[in-house]
Amino acid sequence: MQQSQQLVSEFRSLGIVGPLPLTETEDIDKLRNEILFAVNGQTSESLPGLANRHRDLEAVRTLCLSPAIANVVKQILGSDVVLWNSVVFRKKAGAFSIPWHQDYQFLPIQPNISVTVWIALVNVNDNNGCLRVITKSHGQDIPHLPRQNERQFRGRADMHYVNTKDAVSVTMKAGEFVVMDSKLLHSSGPNMTPYERIALVSRYTIPGVETYDLRGLKPQEVIPVTSSSASGSARVSAAIARATTAGTLDDSAANFVQ
Ligand SMILES: O=C(O)CCC(=O)C(=O)O
Predict the structure, then answer these.
(1) Does 63 map to a domain?
(2) Residue 252, in any domain of the structure
(3) Nearest ligand 1 atom, CA 129
(4) pLDDT digits (tens, 9 = 90+) for 83-113
(5) Would residue 258 count as lying in a domain?
(6) Cis omega (within 30 of 0) on the bond before 111?
(7) Helix (H) or strand (E) holding 133
(8) Residue nearest ligand 1's atom 10 by CA
(9) Which residue of 86, 89, 178, 215 lies most exposed, with the fewest beta carbons within 10 A?
(10) Which residue's CA is the nearest one to ligand 1's atom 3?
(11) Each residue of 127-154: pLDDT tens digit?
């Protein structure tokens, strides 16, 4: 109990918790190879082939529904949690950086209640483009610039508002994950190694929240991570109250542009 209270208060205060280990029964090498085999040929520039594969790939679903992840996300969002989005992030040898951004600005979800989990499928560090974060930035609404073409990442923070000297690199072993507030400023550096860096991002919310496809048009089905008897709308109200208190809720319409 003490441990879980610490975990939640760390999440609320820093906007991130971890790295934490996945459940021991999850064989990360096997799952990674299955994912790579299935997404072969899909790169970050062809994101739709890498998005929401928890719907059809068992290996992606197994990771997204890991009891270790469910346990943490439930402590943050409450016991009734749904998986609503996932993306495989491939960073090939020599590949680009991902610019500083806050996810909540682009999420096709209303109300904007979402927790992001970043799962390392290989060891990650500064050499191969690990995640970088600015802790405590989840309290701020950072202005973002629109992307100039389809090949650019979906959005980037206006760097006048980002103090990169506060950035922390999140070094992780394959099979570890971090849980982030969807308002936490994050980025990742270039991959300077000859090997691919691969990660899985999964996103969770609560029943009753409306979630849409990548273009923010079609309502999407969600996958329950747990169930409880509380009604969806009661859970939404409770989570809105919690998120507002924690300063993590943005009520504006989903403005996702993929
Ligand atoms: O995996 C990465 O390099 C960055 C992922 C990311 O920025 C995101 O999930 O929004």
Answers:
(1) yes
(2) no
(3) 3
(4) 999 999 999 998 889 999 999 988 999 999 9
(5) no
(6) yes
(7) strand 131-134
(8) 103
(9) 215
(10) 188
(11) 999 999 999 999 999 999 987 776 677 7
In a domain, 11, yes or no: yes
CATH number at 80 reads 2.60.120.620
**CA 67, 69, 75 angle in degrees (round to 5)?**
100
The model's pLDDT over 47-83, given as tens digits with 9 standing for 90+, comes to 667 889 999 999 999 999 999 999 999 999 999 999 9
Split into its structural domains, the chain has a count of 1
Q: Residue 233: pLDDT above 50?
A: no
Q: Which of 170, 188, 198, 200 to mutate to test the pocket of ligand 1 (most atoms within 8 A of CB)?
A: 188
Taking the model in full, what pTM does it have?
A: 0.85
Ligand 1 atom nearest residue 103's Cα? 10
Mutate to test the pocket of ligand 1, among 45, 64, 98 (most ligand atoms within 8 A of CB): 98
| Residue 22 neighbours by CB under 8 Å, 6+ apart | 28, 63, 66, 68, 69, 119, 175, 176, 177
CA gap 225, 15 in Å, rounded: 22
- Ligand 1 atom with the smallest distance to the CA of 187 is 7
Pocket test for ligand 1, best of 201, 204, 214 (most atoms within 8 A of CB): 201
The DSSP H or E segment spanning 157 is strand 156-157
Q: Whole domain around residue 167: which residue ranges?
A: 2-246
Determine the residue type at 204.
Answer: Y
Sole residue written with tokens 């993929």 = 258
